[in-house]
């Protein structure tokens, strides 16, 4: 993964993250958005899942761009190793985004997708 390629991947994360945060898909669908079974439980979980995962994608991209520049600089003589490091890093960032978003949703909503504070009233 060259310097330009890895930067473009990070920038794509940033752009998609901003789009998801600012313009989340309004309706639950199987085409666009953050689609896990829990995020699709209700409209509230859908909107929050897309908003929050958009923030996490943005953050992941902001972290990945300088990291990829650093790795490509440090391992410029060994492109194959740099590519492996960046590939694993991208996988870790992607899995972390899903895990953190799922934890966030389960903190805010019960297992049926109802906001926990709404249940207290």
Sequence-ordered SSE layout with sheet pairings:
Layout: H1 3-22, H2 43-74, H3 79-108, H4 116-119
Walk me through this protein's architecture.
It is a single chain. The protein is mostly helical and 121 residues long. It has four helices and no strands. α1 (3-22) packs antiparallel against α2 (43-74) and α2 (43-74) packs antiparallel against α3 (79-108). The longest helix has 32 residues, at 43-74. It is elongated. The termini are far apart. The model has no long low-confidence stretch (mean pLDDT 92).
Keywords:
mainly alpha, 121 residues, 71% helix
Mean pLDDT across residues: 92
Largest sheet: none
What is the number of strand segments? 0
Per DSSP, the total helix count is 4
Summarize this, please?
By secondary structure, the protein is mainly α. The protein contains four helices and no strands.
